[in-house]
Amino acid sequence: MRKNTSLAEGTEEFVYRCRLPLSSAALDLVSGLVRGHLKKIHSRWRKLPPGRIALIVLAALRHDQRLSDIGGGNGISASTVRRWLLEVIELLSARAPRLDRALKKIARKGGVVVLLDGTLVRTRRRTGDENRPNYSGKHKAHGLLFLALTDERGNLMWISAAKPGRYSEITTARHNKITTRLREASLGALADLGFIGLDDDPDDPVIIAGCRASRGHPLTAAEKEANRLVSRERAANEHGFADLKNWRILTKVRMNARHATTLLRALLVLTNAEVNR
Fold first, then answer.
1. 137-165 as b/e, with b when 16 or more CB fall inside 10 Å?
2. For residue range 247-271, what is the model confidence (pLDDT) as tens digits?
3. Helix (H, G, I), strand (E, B) or coil at 158
4. Are 1 and 16 in contact (CB under 8 A)?
5. How far is Cα 111 from Cα 276, in angstroms, rounded to an integer?
6. 3-class state of residue 189 by DSSP
7. Whole-angstrom Cα distance, residue 95 to residue 224?
8. Using CA atoms, how far apart are residues 130 and 93, in angstroms rounded to an integer?
9. Containing H/E element for 53?
10. How far apart are CA 232 and CA 226, in angstroms?
11. Beta-sheet strands, E only, within 63-155
């Protein structure tokens, strides 16, 4: 820890070091994007070099500290850190795969099935009428709903656009035409019980979601075993979400749906850079 004393104002500032648990692959990716962007816009000067900018942005995404605190420790303002942060998020999100390309990539590698699931990213409560759509009755919390596809090993391949928390997973899946895209790529998907009824062709299903008991129809032994098999194969999907939510900026998102979509897709690129290094 380093102590700076300001005699004029009579205040003290403490600067400390913090470990950033990321590989050099993520740092090289972000610094390369920043360097290429500066060259593209013919920017001749920045307060700090691209490598240092990348380090500051990654620290903000990973630890979700106050931008004024991060900027103060590096001799820059909070507005500068915010500008760099938004700039890098845009650059990273542009590299996120589209749904059709992600499915074709899995098919080219010999994959036959993907894992489909949804997650709620918590958000801060908004004022007025904008507050109600983000409330999820299922989770009893405010947030934005995202769908994600992973391969059989749990590596994230695609993230949908954000929907308000009141949306259901099956409605969001229909909006993204997931069953149509799966058929075009000749792939199937494993999902949880929340996706029962999503498939529009029960004679040739591409979504396997297990069986749900009802009041007049308890599950048979064979149906219970089928649910256990689906749950066992889907466990890898939770690892993909865990890798994504290691970025603490997602603890409580302060953005609207459009900006949150950009943020999640940027973090998807960074997560894949970490996992696949």
1. eeeeebbbbbbbbbbeebbbbbbbbbbbb
2. 999 988 877 888 999 999 999 999 9
3. strand
4. yes
5. 17
6. strand
7. 41
8. 25
9. helix 50-63
10. 10
11. 113-122, 135-136, 141-150
Length of the chain: 277
Answer yes or no: are the C-beta atoms of 20 and 58 closer than 8 Å: yes
Distance CA 211, CA 227 (A): 6
Amino acid letter at 129?
Answer: D
> H-helix or E-strand containing 271?
helix 257-275
Straight-line distance from the first to the last Cα atom of the chain, in angstroms, rounded to the nearest whole number: 32
- For residues 163 and 145, the answer to whether their CB atoms sit within 8 Å is yes
Which amino acid type is present at position 75?
G
Q: Which of 9-23, 155-169, 214-228, 236-250 has the lowest mean pLDDT?
A: 9-23
For the four alpha carbons of 68, 69, 71 and 76, in that order, the dihedral sign comes to positive
Residue 238 has pLDDT above 60, yes or no: yes
Asked if 105 and 97 touch (Cβ cutoff 8 Å), the reply is: yes
**Lookup: tokens for 184:** 């075009």
Q: Please compute the mean of the pLDDT values over residues 200-220 and round it to a whole number.
A: 81
Whether residue 158 contacts residue 151, with contact meaning beta carbons closer than 8 Å, is answered with no
Q: Closest Cα to residue 176, out of 158, 194, 191? A: 158
